[in-house]
Amino acid sequence: MTRRRRAAVLLGLALVLGGLAASDVAGREAALRRAVGPSVPVVVARTRIPAGTPLTARNLTVRRVPARFAPALAYGSPAALAGAKAAAALQAGEDVTPAAIDDGTSAAASGAPVRAGERVADLVARGPADLIRAGTRVDVLVTRESGAGAGSASVALEDAEVLAAHPVAAADGAAADTAQGRVAVSLRVTVRQAVFLAAAESFARDLRLLPRAVDDRRHGLAGTTVGSDLR
After folding, report:
1. What CATH code would you report for 38-111?
2. Which of 38, 131, 188, 217 pairs with 22 at a CA distance of 20 to 30 A?
3. What is the pTM of this model?
4. Nearest CA among 30, 64, 96 for reference residue 171
5. For residue range 89-148, what is the model confidence (pLDDT) as tens digits?
6. Strand (E) positions, the chain?
7. Cβ contact 216:138 at 8 Å
8. What is the pLDDT of residue 45?
9. For strand 101-102 and strand 118-126, is the pairing parallel, antiparallel, or unpaired?
10. Strand-strand pairing, 182-190 and 118-126
């Protein structure tokens, strides 16, 4: 084999091996993206923010993180925090969540805005973000997987009071549909209901929030999973 032919063979082999390596790297990157999910916006503190400081675009910024590692109740835009203050000191780069802010409606100095025996349960579910806000009352619908593949739906909780709510930003590439979007809510519940809702976020195929009419306080829906004994 001549020197020129040997060089051509080695060059061709190098190109083949380079292509295989590039393909392997691309496959690993795709698998990693599927594992951690698309990137989503998360509002964080731009600098250290002392407690009681108004939250504005000057001391907040947005970073994008994989959906798997984003806080469930993160804010997607500084505009969502208009009028709020830092309930406690925030360090630079710290995620801004409902627990870290004072929007003027919470009683941070006297504890959570619930009565003895009640708890605040945080939940992310599908629902109309424009209709669900603090003071709204909602039913929580849980759809489970069944052996045949079809879902089985039941009312997990009825007539729950919403203490706080905000829409969850859509992931990259996802259609922005307010009516069928996701909403992060804090609900007034009993301890038993809080435990069930925490478990439901893991086993349920789908969670939905169904807003109630202002004067609709009826209880006892067929299929209710946990007792609704809050009035």
Report:
1. 3.90.1210.10
2. 38
3. 0.49
4. 64
5. 899 999 888 878 887 655 444 556 667 778 888 888 999 988 998 889 999 998 887 665
6. 39-45, 60-66, 85-86, 101-102, 118-126, 137-145, 151-168, 182-190, 206-211
7. no
8. 93
9. unpaired
10. antiparallel
